[in-house]
Amino acid sequence: MIELTVNGTTHPVDADPSTPLLYVLRNDLQLNGAKFGCGLGQCGACTVMVDDKAVFSCRTPVSSAAGRAIKTVEGLGTADHPGPLQRAFIEEQAAQCGYCIAGMMMRGQALLEKNPAASEAEIREALQPNLCRCGTHSRIIRAIKRGGALIRAAANTPQTGGAAR
Amino acid sequence: MNAPAFPELSRRALLAAGGALVVSFSLRGIGSALAQSAAPERAPDGKTLDSWIQIEANGTVTIFTGRTEFGQGVKTALLQVAAEELYLDPATLKIVSCDTALTPDEGYTSGSRSMKISGKAMRAAAAQAREILLKQAAAKFSTSAEGLKLERGKIVAPDGRSLGYGELVADNFLHVEADEKPKLKEPKSYTVVGHPFARVDIPAKVTGGAAYIQDLRLPGMVHARVVRPPTYAAVLRSVDAAKVEKMPGVLKVVRDGSYLAVIAEKEFQAITAMQALAAAAKWDEQAVLPANYAALYEFLQNTQSQEVVIHDNKVPLPPDVRTVVATFKRDYQMHGSIGPSCAVALFDNGKLTVWAQNQGAYPLREAVAELVNLPAEKVRCIHVEGAGCYGHNGADDAGGDAALLAMALPGRPVRVQWMRQDEHGWEPYGSAMLSKARASVDARGQIVDWEYDVWSMTHSTRPGGAKCLSASWYREQPLKLPPARAPKPTETDGNRNATPPYKVPSIRIVHHHIKEMALRVSALRSLGAYMNVFANESLMDELARAASADPVDFRIRHLDDSRAIDVIRATAERFGWSQSRLPQGRGRGFAYARYRNGETYVAVAVEADVDRASGAVRLRRIAATADSGQAVSPDGIRNQIEGGIHQAASWTLYEAVSFDKMRITSRDWAGYPIMRFDAVPDAVDVQIIDRPGKPFLGTGEAAQGPTAAAIANAVADAIGTRIYELPLKPERIKAAIRV
């Protein structure tokens, strides 16, 4: 049994230790966020955060993620109460098919957690491992920039309770 | 009783659904596709109004469409159109899309026809339903319909009495012949169409909601992987499956001729078993492909083709003309969906249900029924969105795989997920093409003659029957794709946008259709238009140069259509088009086309830098203008045009499927590189010209051709010589500079 801590909750998982984290997240934990794109670490559709880093979950054996803080796009908020980066993607309408978007968001989240004032050049560099095929690139860049602004605004506003809207 | 056709799902509703699939679904986190599959079946013939629209006693309005969402925003736009005519908030309507048990047969979602045809039909259906509601209300209020007002789901009488739509529902009251020309709202009174309305599918996509076929998890579902042959023509000589059958979780190895697959309890078990099975399989291969692109283009020109004459209206040339001649090429390019194809199927109680992404559920049902030898009425196909497909990718094939494997394991839902190398190697590509152009300007700088010959393999091998599903080619009793029939000369297939949109007194346009294919090909976004517009608009720049004219002015003076001129002028203005000198290595390019010569108008201007040492192109900024007629969803149009620009930029600068005489060698993103973020243009600025009251025009494919041509023209401007072959790879640019 492997213990995985995903979005703050710890789950016992019965999986072969060599199973890529991606399949455990999607099938054992029924989380849709991380996507299968290539299984080769070439496209980034499977990107999640492990501790403070964005990683390819298709190339991360589940055993190596045990005991570490895993974050998926589900950990950023919900459709009813979207977190800042999710709000930013909705406000920018930054998706077409959307299949790559959760991976883009986790790559963006990892960047913004370090530097919520990341420049466009830094955003492009961070997103370099991830592919989009619909051509939503410009909107994705704008959405991550906006997400940074929303995170900074939230940090500067005293919490008044309730979920961010 | 007006039976609710699309109930809020509860476990009871699900089990009560007599004709529906009887499976005990877990309803937690249920996706719309699952909900849809549990709804009672109907038999919409498309002729009656209730094929398209249903209103329940609780006031819920559901629209039914045969069009499929693949990220282009069609669901959102159709909801807006229906909500407008029904005076409803579009967020309150439901939409059911592309399901052989629920929606009318609208053929394929292709060719940028959704809004033009289905948008128009949906508008008419909603308007007719509104008029019926008004009549019902007038009878209940004992008043005339004229004085009644509609307000967000209610009809209000002059004396203040009001009734909700649900209260006006009567038995089969929408079961009337669909009227194609009901009374429509005046566009100037629109409050929904043309107004911002966020895409309905985005919240789930950014929060990990169940949004894709890949997210479908049925109780008891098992996982399958197919071991594809190494080449198109390979034959499975032998495979020792005994060891694989004993691997953990493996339920079954399926072999049918050269069709080989494995089914396992868990997904990674299926992958591991597939790898072991692939290692154990011995194939007889033979070289069936052209050795390289040079050989392919030889084949294109020299094999026997069928001539499809599009225009033949030649008149003698005046004296003193300047003539430009050019040969253009376009290598094979792939759809390259980010999510490889996936499908789920269940064979239970003699009925087969297939959940798959597709461009048409009815044609897929025909194909699957034939593949598994069941009558069509025993097969239900339900479209579920997948990753963007941009045409005919592996999605239908995956549906065929899932169907075959589900038949081999009755009672368990079987999920087939293609691996990356399956998608890259087995999807049908956009056909390689070659064209020869010859055009002349007279001494006044007017075009006096235009000849264009284009050679192409087919751009459509969609189902079409079981023979169009790749699984059928490798079974013990194999099927074979027949030679492609010659297309009509009607802006279709390889001749799409072959005709220039300009005034030319003497013209001959011929499409040389090649019925065989070397690599597997089918519909890729815009079909032949991408290549033909690249060629025509490259030629226009050469003609402008021969006439010593500015490329923008030269285009405008050869156009009659004021809407074409408007998008060109608006783009030139937004871009700041001029003849001012640019720094060394920088160029600007312009292009225009109206998709299919009848859909959305698009003009594109590009500024690009070319590094002379490496031959690499860097796109600095792109401005574009689109006129899609009455704009239903302006940001949806902008998103489609922006997306088309980025995607076509990637096609144009980087993309060519590679192969040798044995096999496809573009098997992953390293072997088929596409645009990454460092190459995204610094600015992509798209503006929309709205035309209230004009017909909706198809948008999804309209940017592909003009983008390619504007980039090619900018590169030509930057380096002083032209590249005639797509993609504009650094090697080609370096070679052109050296000449």
Structural overview:
The complex is a heterodimer of chains A (about 160) and B (about 750). Chain A has helices at about 20-30, 60-65, 85-90, 100-115, 120-125, 135-155; strands spanning about 1-5, 10-15, 45-50, 55, 70. Chain A is α+β, with helices and mostly antiparallel strands and about 160 residues long. Chain A has 2 domains: about 1-75, Roll (Ubiquitin-like (UB roll)), CATH 3.10.20.30; about 75-155, [2Fe-2S]-binding domain (DNA polymerase, domain 1, Orthogonal Bundle). Chain A has a 5-stranded mixed β-sheet, sandwiched between helices. In chain A, strand 1 and strand 2 (about 10-15) form a beta hairpin. The radius of gyration of chain A is 15 Å and the shape is globular. By secondary structure, chain B is α+β, with helices and mostly antiparallel strands. Chain B has 3 domains: about 10-205, Aldehyde Oxidoreductase, domain 4 (2-Layer Sandwich); about 215-285 and about 335-425, Aldehyde oxidase/xanthine dehydrogenase, molybdopterin binding domain (Aldehyde Oxidoreductase, domain 4), CATH 3.30.365.10; about 435-739, Aldehyde oxidase/xanthine dehydrogenase, molybdopterin binding domain (Aldehyde Oxidoreductase, domain 4). In chain B, about 30% of the residues lie in helices and about 20% in strands. In chain B, strand 5 and strand 6 (about 160-165) form a beta hairpin. In chain B, helix 15 (about 635-655) packs across helix 16. Chain B starts with 10 loop residues before the first helix and ends with a helix. Classes of the chains: A alpha+beta (about 160), B alpha+beta (about 750). Chains A and B meet through helix 1, helix 3, helix 4, helix 5 and helix 6 of A and helix 5, helix 7 and helix 15 of B.
